[in-house]
Input
Amino acid sequence: MRIHIIACRIFARELGFLASQSDNTIDITWIGRGLHNDSSRLRSRLCDAVDELYRQLENGEMEYRPDAIVLAYGLCSNGVIGVRCRDIPIVIPRTDDCIALFMGSQERYLQEFSMSGSACWCNSAWLEQSTSLFDTDTIRRRKWQEYAEKYGEDNADYLLEMESGWIRNYSTLGYIHSSVYDTPAYLERAKAEAAGKGWKLRELHDDLRLLRMMVDGTWNAEEFLILQPGERIAPDYTGRKIQAAVDPE
Output
């Protein structure tokens, strides 16, 4: 099977490693982690990545047609909602976000959040791909300017305050050790980030199960949504996170 994965760059080490071991032929399009901060821009970029794949097929740049397109993303603040399937099936895991993918399942993700209480999670990949785990002054100023232009200065102040308010709900920084690449430097940085917020640090180890299923093509309907031609990704509020939808004609 030939699988084309469109993935957030935080999976670079893990997916690169797993792809090298898979019996399938794996091609990967990488998308920068920074779009995680803006779900509308992420949605647009994902749609562009799918369109670009088709452009490469049409102009002969890509000689082999993939059997499936896999999105290495979770729901990610609805950033995947609206992505459409043309004639190549699109596969996406039914998880809240990438942290569940590093944990191996949505079930473990929910269990860890329940056990850890108010915890914000990261791992070596997040630290490797991020200048900061939290919004810097530069990012906040850029967001404020965008909101001010769209909604006015008073509303910009309110929106930025609402966005940053989530930090007050956390008291723990969870650090997920990578089974592919781990270094004491990243753990030390996680400790420093936690100390800077006055938070506790909780450590656990990753599980590459879902990522391995992506490259092996062993997708089940319980943990993955498989879009068929003409369908698009829509939200699901029953706990399955996402579902297939078709626009009325």
Observations:
- The chain has two domains: 2-100+208-245, 106-205.
- The beta strands are 2-8, 25-31, 68-72, 90-93, 119-123, 172-177, 200-205, 224-227, 232-235, 242-245.
